[in-house]
Amino acid sequence: MTTYPAPGPARTRRPVRVWDIVVSSILLVLLALLAAMMSFFGFFLAMASDSCGARDCSSELIGAGLITAVALPWVILLAAAIVTILLLVFRKLAFWVPLAAAPLVVASWFLGAFIAAAGVPTG
Description:
By secondary structure, this protein is mainly α. It has helices at residues 18-42, 59-89, 96-118. The chain is elongated and about 95 Å long.
């Protein structure tokens, strides 16, 4: 006679946290607004080339800084949205992802400004 082990407790899924879904959604919308604002400010880095008539500037570095400041906030937003959605699907806390991504979106402008400034010689 074959004996089978006693069945274990049934696996139950974690409950849906409605507050986490609502807060995560609101924070993602706010992150999108922040990304749009920082991307808009990134276009102003084109003014770094204003003094390039009298100096020998690197238009490649200025352009790379501008592209970085304009595009990187959207890349960070996309990554944050994907991670947030995956965490919500697996019913884990997700509200912290847009909060953690917000300083990265702001830092992306500073990174772009640093790169653009490297293309303009001093003195």
